[in-house]
Amino acid sequence: MVPRYARPEMTAIWSAENRFRIWFEIEAHATDALAELGTVPKSAAKALWDWWATNPAIDVAAIDAIEAVTKHDVIAFLTWVAENVGDEARFMHQGMTSSDVLDTCLAVQLAQAADILLADLDALLEAIKRRAYEHKLTPTIGRSHGIHAEPVTFGLKLAEAYAEFSRCKLRLQAARAEIATCAISGAVGTFANIDPRVEAHVAAKLGLAIEPVSTQVIPRDRHAMFFAVLGVIASSIERLSVEVRHLQRTEVLEAEEYFSPGQKGSSAMPHKRNPILTENLTGLARVVRSAVTPAMENVALWHERDISHSSVERFIGPDATITLDFALGRLTGVVDKLLVYPERMQKNLDRMGGLVHSQRVLLALTQAGASREESYVLVQRNAMKVWESDGQLSLLELLKGDADVTAKLSADELTALFDLGYHLKHVDTIFDRVFGAA
Amino acid sequence: MVPRYARPEMTAIWSAENRFRIWFEIEAHATDALAELGTVPKSAAKALWDWWATNPAIDVAAIDAIEAVTKHDVIAFLTWVAENVGDEARFMHQGMTSSDVLDTCLAVQLAQAADILLADLDALLEAIKRRAYEHKLTPTIGRSHGIHAEPVTFGLKLAEAYAEFSRCKLRLQAARAEIATCAISGAVGTFANIDPRVEAHVAAKLGLAIEPVSTQVIPRDRHAMFFAVLGVIASSIERLSVEVRHLQRTEVLEAEEYFSPGQKGSSAMPHKRNPILTENLTGLARVVRSAVTPAMENVALWHERDISHSSVERFIGPDATITLDFALGRLTGVVDKLLVYPERMQKNLDRMGGLVHSQRVLLALTQAGASREESYVLVQRNAMKVWESDGQLSLLELLKGDADVTAKLSADELTALFDLGYHLKHVDTIFDRVFGAA
Amino acid sequence: MVPRYARPEMTAIWSAENRFRIWFEIEAHATDALAELGTVPKSAAKALWDWWATNPAIDVAAIDAIEAVTKHDVIAFLTWVAENVGDEARFMHQGMTSSDVLDTCLAVQLAQAADILLADLDALLEAIKRRAYEHKLTPTIGRSHGIHAEPVTFGLKLAEAYAEFSRCKLRLQAARAEIATCAISGAVGTFANIDPRVEAHVAAKLGLAIEPVSTQVIPRDRHAMFFAVLGVIASSIERLSVEVRHLQRTEVLEAEEYFSPGQKGSSAMPHKRNPILTENLTGLARVVRSAVTPAMENVALWHERDISHSSVERFIGPDATITLDFALGRLTGVVDKLLVYPERMQKNLDRMGGLVHSQRVLLALTQAGASREESYVLVQRNAMKVWESDGQLSLLELLKGDADVTAKLSADELTALFDLGYHLKHVDTIFDRVFGAA
Amino acid sequence: MVPRYARPEMTAIWSAENRFRIWFEIEAHATDALAELGTVPKSAAKALWDWWATNPAIDVAAIDAIEAVTKHDVIAFLTWVAENVGDEARFMHQGMTSSDVLDTCLAVQLAQAADILLADLDALLEAIKRRAYEHKLTPTIGRSHGIHAEPVTFGLKLAEAYAEFSRCKLRLQAARAEIATCAISGAVGTFANIDPRVEAHVAAKLGLAIEPVSTQVIPRDRHAMFFAVLGVIASSIERLSVEVRHLQRTEVLEAEEYFSPGQKGSSAMPHKRNPILTENLTGLARVVRSAVTPAMENVALWHERDISHSSVERFIGPDATITLDFALGRLTGVVDKLLVYPERMQKNLDRMGGLVHSQRVLLALTQAGASREESYVLVQRNAMKVWESDGQLSLLELLKGDADVTAKLSADELTALFDLGYHLKHVDTIFDRVFGAA
């Protein structure tokens, strides 16, 4: 976790205090269930909750000090609780194994993290939607291969982003459902020393599903899937960021990240306004994505479990979620405050001398009876002249002066083909598909 | 694609012939829709289908030869079709762009591939289930950290695998649904030159959903998700393979890959029976997983599209699906024919002198009034002696001889604690969770 | 391997025939050494070489047929050789293990591949150098963050690429040296059944170093390093390719990939000239890079070896080397034939109204006695006006009209600060560093 | 960075204080050179060093507070220095750009990190060497595929590790040399505003090489190579760790991680001694390796630079080096204190009834005139009986009772073939190769 790329709410999920609070709740709910089953005295559960009701501070340093001796984190925690609760605490953790606590806790943390990320996605989607409708009909050039193609609108670009992040949301909802399971099944998952009803009780209390079959640990294919989804979301962040970076290039300048009055772009070149937020997001996407492979390497634990996954998760658990949360928040800000320059979009759209209408002419020639190959030649020979003039010549004028063309299409017909509205007639259709019909 | 790790059905999906067949169907269905809309003559569509009804051979070499000149694959294909169909073919591809064909074709191929993989998963699940029930109550030692822990059954190990691959199946079904979209939206996705109803028609005919908003291409987050799921499945294959490899180790030998009579394990050491299939699967898992990162790097295409994804997909499309299909098939064979040695499992289970029952004793001591810490000490001091004897001493006998222990638990009570059935009492519960109640 | 991204010379290295030829040479050289040591009759070695001198065709199908029965590739090969050579062949492979042959063969193949790649790099470096000197003093705008910064020359851009690929060459030479080792040490690397002098002899004959200590296999950290270097080279290819793609953008258009007369850029838009080669290279870089992680995952083989690396290497060995060879060749062609537009470079350089000289003014103001902060303010307030005019205003003229500025610097002094030569005065120095002093 | 996997010396390299100290030294040395060239007054340089000689505390909070306003870290730092040094500080940073400071600083940090890692490798190599000589002739079974093969010694296993980490050291030395460059070349690397001699001076003072050609930034292929080497080292750590984990398995138990008296292996099973250190190292290897791909993705910065690499490096710079340092230290401790059980090794070696000698018998039969195929059959039919008896039968006895065998080899000859010394006769040779002749 790098503090400059972290927000407090998500960071708090990964604090020692939050972890220990979750541990306590797991243990105490389990003790409730054990008491209900008659395995331990009801007074034991009551003692735990009575102490908890005092809202005790979690003394992380004290627990760490105990761990330094026992070299075992859960035992250290239980010892600390026992020091506070007293003799009744000995019934706690009855029949459970450390991983019951650790893995269920991780499930809670990842579910909490997913909830924040889902809210982040909602905020991002809202910002995108607002700007999409704002620029629904703002014409701009569509580019393939970085080369001018045909007109689109800036709203369509954002509609695409909206659809993409909507898919990301669905994926994250599925991944959250997968990860949110509770395992309290004992040393090798057989429930030998603990009744399955304890697991069911704790799961219900924590809003988790039960893990159908565990092997001391919750199987890591669930986590691999979770981090893979984060990696896909990061890749979508990269895509929109790269779009902004392209639009802000000096020669393009169709949009810019918001530039605050006090901000200095460069220590040397005071005129510079750099797309540093989206460049930063491009890098953060690489960081989030780097969690995917180790998460997949974590799946093949030996036999009923080894502990190689644990150190990996201590990194990628916080890093991937905190960084993604920050990145989603930053991207939302970029979209929300993006400076959009419709005039420059129009200027760029016009700069190629009408080449963007070439395909429509091609089709019209075909409709007018020319073969596809012939039409292609007619368009291309005029298009090339415009291209080589760097847009100083007009495709429309050249076509009007090409006798082979005018043999098929009149000047008026040609003029009608150079109509921008032709390209925008289905924007409503697409918006309805993406945002839902009004 | 490496031929030795490829099966014909999946390989055929990626053949040039299959690709061209799909291209034709897309073009011909689109022409139908265009004819219905009055954009092109109905005779054009009829001409295409009439020719197709003759079941013409796809002359890949001829198409390639045309491409060598045009340097454009779709134009080459259209030219070849036109050579065969005649003049009516000029109406084909009206208003479409190459990517409409290419991306929709890729969607069809990935959906076809997913269908095979889903069938593979079904076969694997069936094999696992059969063996799981066969060994539902075959006791074996559960191991954490590679160290003996407590008893499980071999059927439980397989139930875990069944649950894991069942999750893989659900993920793949979701990924298939995501990837199976049709985009026929023209040069930059605006439908400027083609009515959205064409897309809807082709989608329906090919069993695809429409792509809500495309930008010449289908957005690559869909593909990233698809390959990520393949990577997770591969990781689960690795997990089960590593389990078999461990079980086949000389010192463990609880199970073995089937060894055919004519097979030679080593050119030098004729006695060797190596788990080469599961070692191979471990490697193939790495191969499939290696597709995930480039698929994610493909997401951030520039503006409305660049073509950097294309070369990546020419590799990972076939490689990841063909290799995963092969791997699933191979793993199914391994499971199906796995030699399982219950006697050896029992022998291994017994080799630690009863240490596997230590936790139960610990709990019983706690129940009998000892503190958790005291119980721990009592068990550990006896357990350590057994451990150091390499299982020659018996934990039960030592406990019976420890006065501090017998002060809490009688000899009979101790004996009762060393009962294997205690560990297996919830196997039915777990099987019901995994396979569904009878 | 994808045929369209493969060249014959590199592909041939990975053919079955080449592999079997190398196998034979390893076996025959080893037999020579064994004969010299008196372990086998000299007639055995002679028989092998006599047969080899007849330049026998390698009957891959026959060997494959034998393998189908034995399920062991080296035994199949030895059987086939014995069928051809006769009884003397029984002395072949004495004391060796399959991996002695397989791993030493792979070392030869990777060394052969490295030699081709090194030649590729030489050709690329030569092309870059030629174009670098051609455009040594062609002014163009330097960009950071995609935003105009200060002038550079196009030759400097290429000098940077030259330096980068020179480093790549050194890395590949080191990786080649690392990978080119010979191991003939028997079943677990102890030389129990084969004298170390056999290994030394074969190594010398094949131009390899001896592997100091092997464990049936050559340790895979060597291979991991080799593929990591290929991944770095691929990343450098991506960098230069992305540069070309940027330069070819419609709004920039300072350079273009060569566009052959018959080439069609788009089936729909005949005017398009797309940077498809460098986009393709961007994708191929992802492909080559994807070999790095599995190669690293291959390192941790179990004990003296397992065979999980083998399937991985069957993919990444050919794929990474063939694809990188193709990519280097393609990039060399791109550089060699790149269309460079100095006039457009100058036009872009001028389009910001002189903002590129802002830092020099800043420094001059500081030298003239203004504080750094004051100077910054003076420059920025004028620079911002130019920026907002989209380069229609001239920074020089604005500065001349700013009394706070002219209080420090005269009009003539200001004019002198807007001299392009100021930025190019150290180009020779840098060229000397990169290409060596004349 | 995860504190529990971090050591203070390496962590300090990445502290804000260390970074600011390096920044100051770069700036002050540069001011010296500028003063020498007459660009700035010598008093300016003196003022900086005079202040520095007071050993001023680095007020990180103050610098951060300034950055919160300027949103630019280097400007914030310069402002803070100026507040302390006074008016003379305005000559600092003359003609430089932020990246001159940032990238040269990163080079210093990575070189510092490499020095620690090189020392770590030396310590590890020393520990391995000591244990290797200690167990140079301790016989143990060599295993391929996890299956018993032929005898080796435990010292040989360690010699292999020694050779592998020696290679890692050479790679890291090369990577350190590559990364340790100084760039002070101004806004786009042209030295327009700063003389190349400044760069040369600072480089010399900081023990760096000059960067031959930079583009505001030091090219990122250097960093990609650096992190790739860390990834390879991590993979070698994983290999040795996996070896220890295998040796500690209950059924194998040939070695164990040191187990301290107070340590609890499990909260539930007091008898457990788990290889948690090497399992942890297996996970940490995945973490370090995960830096490789983003480092490679950082190479293709846009034009003269973008800043996407920066956020990535804020993670992987500290994470990969700190984690690798910790891992190397931990592995050194594991090797140093490893509990090795020669008796158990011998027991395991004997458990297969002499099958480990099968190849030698095979060769002897061949030498005695049997064909290779015949010999193979003779050995295998007896070997299979031993195998199926789980080592209860003796291969030597069975061979003595096989008339077809004794027709070729006498009982005494057979007995002589079952000699362990035969397998160890070249251990000295291998040790000489790895550790150098005495």
TrEMBL record, chains A, B, C, D:
Q: Which CDD domains match?
A: Adenylsuccinate_lyase_1
The Adenylosuccinate lyase C-terminal domain covers which part of the protein?
Answer: 353-435
Name of the gene encoding the protein in the UniProt record: purB
Q: Which organism is it from?
A: Sphingopyxis fribergensis
Output the superkingdom of the source species.
Bacteria
**UniProt-recorded name of the protein:** Adenylosuccinate lyase
Give the catalytic activity. N(6)-(1,2-dicarboxyethyl)-AMP = fumarate + AMP; (2S)-2-[5-amino-1-(5-phospho-beta-D-ribosyl)imidazole-4-carboxamido]succinate = 5-amino-1-(5-phospho-beta-D-ribosyl)imidazole-4-carboxamide + fumarate
Part of which pathway? Purine metabolism; AMP biosynthesis via de novo pathway; AMP from IMP: step 2/2; Purine metabolism; IMP biosynthesis via de novo pathway; 5-amino-1-(5-phospho-D-ribosyl)imidazole-4-carboxamide from 5-amino-1-(5-phospho-D-ribosyl)imidazole-4-carboxylate: step 2/2
By its UniProt entry, which SMART domains does this protein fall under? ADSL_C
